[in-house]
Amino acid sequence: MPEEYIQSEPVNPIVENLLLNSRRIFINEEITNTSSKKIIMEIQLLSSIDDAEPIYLYINSNGGCIVNGLAIIDAMDLAKAPIYTICRGAACSMGAYILMNGEDGHRYTTKNSTIMMHPASYTLADYQPFIDIAAKFNEKMDKKLAEYGARKCKKTIKDFRADIIHGIWLYGKEAVKYGCVDAVWTPTLERSIQIFDLFEENAEIGEKSGEVCMQGRDCYDNA
Fold first, then answer.
1. Low pLDDT (below 50) residues in the chain
2. Which of 113, 114, 118, 122 is 20 to 30 A from 175 in CA distance terms?
3. Does residue 192 have an active-site annotation?
4. In whole angstroms, what is the distance from residue 220 CA to residue 223 CA?
C-alpha cells in the first residue's frame, strides 16, 4: 500500500513532547521515508542536547524499507549519545536489525515481545523490466544484512543465514539466548528512566510565545 494511504492514530503532542524530553523515541509503525525522517531528527536532536545521557529507542514495528532502516542505523552510529534499544511488542524484519544496533549491553526486549528475522527482500517496483539489476541489488542487501546480523548476534554468517532462511521467531529470553538482545527489559529498568518535570517550563514558554504574538502580530494560525 502506498505510504500516503497508510494512516496512523495521531499522538497527543503534549504527551509526545514530554516523552521526548525524557529521551524516549518510539518506532511504532512501518519504517518508511516519513517515519525514518522523524526518528533520525529526534536522535540528532537529543544527542546534540546531551551526548552523555542515553537515548531510549522503543521499537514496535513489523519492519519496512531496508534503505530507510539503514538510514536510522547510520544515525544511531553517528550519534555521540548512547542509544538503548527496547523491543516492546514486535521487532520484525528491519525493526529487528535496528533493535540489534543498540548500545552493547543495552539491547532489550520485554518478556512478551516478538523478534523476527528473515532474508532481505527488496522490490524495485518501478524497474521491473530490469530484473537482473533488481536481483543483484537484492543480493547485495541480503549479504549486507546477513553480515550485520551475524556480527551483532556473534554468529558465523553461514550459521546466521541458515537460522533465518525460513524466518526465525524469538520471544523474550529466547532472544537473549540467541544473542540479538542482551537482557529482558524489566519494570525496574523502566522506572529508572529520569522523568523531567516540564509542565511549568512549558507553561512559561507558552506564555512568552503568546506575548510575542500579541505584541508583534507576527503569528499564523497554522504555523
1. 1-7, 198-223
2. 122
3. no
4. 5
**Burial class of residue 129 in the structure, from the number of CB atoms within 10 Å of its CB (0-12 exposed, 13-18 middle, 19+ buried):** exposed
The domains located in the chain, with CATH, are 3-197 (3.90.226.10)
Residue of 47, 61, 93, 113 marked catalytic: 93
| Short-list 86, 78, 84, CA closest to 61 | 86
Q: What is the pLDDT of residue 17?
A: 83
**Residues 6+ positions from 213 with CB-CB distance below 8 Å:** 219
For residue 92, the surrounding DSSP H or E stretch is strand 83-92
Q: What pLDDT score does 199 carry?
A: 45
* pTM higher than 0.85: no
Predicted confidence (pLDDT) per residue in 59-74, tens digit: 999 999 999 999 999 9
- One of 118, 121, 192, 209 is an active-site residue; which one? 118
Q: CB-based burial of residue 101 (10 Å sphere; 0-12 exposed, 13-18 middle, 19+ buried)?
A: buried
Largest CA distance in the chain: 67
Concerning whether 118 is annotated as a catalytic residue, the answer is yes
Per the CB < 8 A criterion, the answer to whether 172 and 111 are in contact is: yes
Q: What is the pLDDT of residue 196?
A: 58
